[in-house]
Amino acid sequence: MGLSPREVFLRLVHGVADGNFEELPGLYGEVTDVRHPMATPESEPLTSRRALHEHFTVPPEARGSLPKRRVVDVVVHETADPEVIVAEFAYEFTLPDDSTAKVPCVFVMRVQDGQIVESRDYIDPIRTRTARGDLDGLIASLRKEFP
C-alpha cells in the first residue's frame, strides 16, 4: 500500500514550495485528471504523468528567479471516501522587499495506491500573479481572454 492521501498532498505542496519539481510527477498516476478551475488564462486538464512532468518543468535559467514560498495554514479534511481529501492551505511568498503575501488554495484530491489520480486545484490567480510580481501578465491574459 502506498502513501495516504494526506501524505501525498503534503509531499506535493511542500515539494512545490521547496522547488523539488523533478520529484512531483512521481506523485501522480500514469493516467490522471488534474484541473485548475480558477486558472487565468484557462488551462487544459492534465491527464497523464507526462503532462504533469511538462507542467512542473522549470527551465534552469528560471529557477533562480522563482520566489521563495512556504506552506502555511494547512487543514486536511478527510471524507467518507477514504481515497478523497479536501485540503485547505496557503502558499506564503516572500517578496523582494522581505514582506510576505499569502495565496489561499483548496485542493480536492483522489489518491489511489499512493498516487494522485484526480485533483481539482483551486488557487487564487490574482494573489498568485501578484506574489510572483506578474500582475501585468495577469492583466494581459485577462485582456486576451475577455477582449
> Radius of gyration over alpha carbons?
15 Å
By CATH reckoning, the class would read Alpha Beta
CATH architecture: Roll
Report the count of strand segments. 6
Largest sheet: 6 strands, mixed
3D shape: globular
Number of helices: 5
CATH topology: Nuclear Transport Factor 2, Chain: A
**End-to-end C-alpha gap:** 50 Å
The total tally of domains equals 1
- Fraction of residues in β-strands: 35-45%
Encode the helix/strand succession as letters: HEEHHEEEEHH
Would you identify the regions where 5 or more consecutive residues have pLDDT less than 50?
none
Structural class: alpha+beta
What is the helical fraction, as a range of percent? 25-40%
Labels describing this entry:
147 residues; alpha+beta; Nuclear Transport Factor 2, Chain: A; 6-stranded mixed beta sheet
Briefly summarize what is shown.
The mean pLDDT is 91.
Describe the structure in your own words:
- It is a single chain.
- The chain has 147 residues and is α+β, with helices and mostly antiparallel strands.
- The chain has one domain (5-145): Nuclear Transport Factor 2, Chain: A (Roll), CATH 3.10.450.50.
- It is built from 5 helices and 6 strands, in the order H-E-E-H-H-E-E-E-E-H-H.
- A 6-stranded mixed β-sheet has the order 2-1-6-5-4-3.
- Helix 4 (125-131) packs antiparallel against helix 5 (135-145).
